[in-house]
Model the fold of this input.
Amino acid sequence: MRSSSVDVATADGVADAYLTRPEGDGPHPAVLFIMDAIGLRSRIEEMADRVAAQGHVVLAPNVFYRAGRAPVLALPDSSDPDERAGFMDAVRPLVEQLTPERVVGDGAAYLEYLAGVAPGPVAITGYCMGGRVGWRIAAAHPDRVVALGSFHAGGLVTDAPSSPHLSAGDLKAELYFGHADQDRSMTVEQIEVLERALDDAGARYRSELYEGARHGYTMADTAAYDEAACERHFTELFALLGSTFKAR
Done:
């Protein structure tokens, strides 16, 4: 793989990012990789490399760039509940700063950057909060985003007037959702609401519950990691990317 750290100019500053791609000139279709709340780190880079090895140019931005370059926060000890709780308290304001308007603006910058290195349509894969961020970018840029994979995502259904599920009609992408069945941020009841919204919008999607998997099941540097669920996620993601880009 060819990989490097790059800077992406946004309306609010500069987002540092990880860019990885296969050897050779391509062309290679583009994938925007949206991190979880723990941040841009070696695990995200490993996952992005694995996606790139399938023949894609992958950009993984530090979506918390307004608070500084990655790592914005030190990775907590997953075996220490107090340390993890303190980390979540520290990261919560960073997540709250990602308003829908900022996410859409940042998304435009990420897509513009990708257009310069891999012209053409873009697929998105998002994890935890990244599923929600990816949804908003896909809904705001239906002419560019042709696929969205969302894995152990939280907050896709809320009581807020800006809840992502309310914009299901704006999505034109092919969608896949790999829900964790032990996820307080995306309960079975919320999944049902999400699926009704997608059905009502006529969206093209698959929504699956990963039994026994916890929120964060793809992240090998956390206690929630589930190897079987993670491998299933890669299988589904690669199938989504393969069918989407092959059809174009």
Observations:
- The two ends are 25 Å apart (CA to CA).
- Residues 227-246 form the longest helix (20 residues).
